[in-house]
Design goal:
The protein is α/β, with parallel strands linked by helices and about 230 residues long. The protein is about 35% helix and about 15% strand.
Length: about 230
């Protein structure tokens, strides 16, 4: 059986999407994160033969996202100090439950498609680890068919542009088979948000996020372009 994990902060003002505070208010940062989550959950809910999990942070109470939690979603708190330890603990817990393939992604890229996730699970039939790289040097998705703790080692500087390369370096001599899926762009900064808004104007992706932008912050983004 497969497990799909969405790893997310609780959308609380001043505790989520804080790098967007150069253009949005704290409340708007929390609201756009909520819109991201709606789109990502919708995408991940359509993965066949796969249990869906949300592992959430301690930024605020879980009831903030209650309206997103469908009956088929299993919800647990994150455990650990840094990002690497939290991810390792999630994979460990799910493999102990008997899952044979686990794919984990964050909540910063609402443009992720069902095809991306399907491709990650498909690659795990012949590969040990699969990554979804980001343009800023990190990765938005990681999948494994068993726990390989070395990719979460303490030497990796989480949150820096070297994360993906340092992770690849850490497994280079291991003999593990590694592959990647589509590269996407994190929506972390003002520039990311402006670029993202331009992309989604031309397609039908990210409908919840698009509605939020059009109804609440469109004028702000237009002013930034002028």
């Amino acid at each position: 059986m497969n497990a799909m994990v969405i790893m997310t902060r609780i959308p609380v003002p001043n505790k989520t999407k804080t790098r967007l505070l150069t253009i949005l208010t704290p409340q708007e940062c929390a609201h756009i994160h909520m819109a991201f989550l709606k789109d990502i959950i919708k995408t991940c809910s359509n993965i066949e033969n796969t249990d869906l999990y949300i592992f959430y942070g301690n930024e605020g109470p879980l009831n903030i996202i209650d309206n997103l939690l469908k009956d088929n979603i299993k919800v647990f708190p994150q455990k650990g100090i840094d990002l690497g330890e939290k991810m390792k603990n999630i994979f460990s817990e799910l493999f102990q439950k008997g899952y044979t393939k686990v794919v984990l992604m964050g909540a910063d890229i609402p443009e992720v498609k069902k095809e991306d996730i399907d491709n990650a699970f498909l690659k795990l039939q012949n590969k040990d680890i699969v990554f979804g790289p980001t343009l800023d040097g990190g990765y938005y998705l990681v999948g494994m068919n068993k726990l390989y703790p070395l990719i979460f080692n303490s030497n990796i500087k989480w949150g820096t542009p070297e994360v993906f390369q340092e992770t690849i370096n850490s497994i280079r001599e291991s003999g593990l088979k590694v592959d990647t899926i589509s590269t996407h762009e994190d929506i972390d900064t003002k520039e990311d948000l402006l670029s993202f808004n331009k992309r989604i104007e031309k397609n039908d992706l990210c409908k919840n996020t698009k509605i939020y932008i059009d109804e609440n912050i469109k004028e702000k983004l237009i002013c930034q372009k002028n």
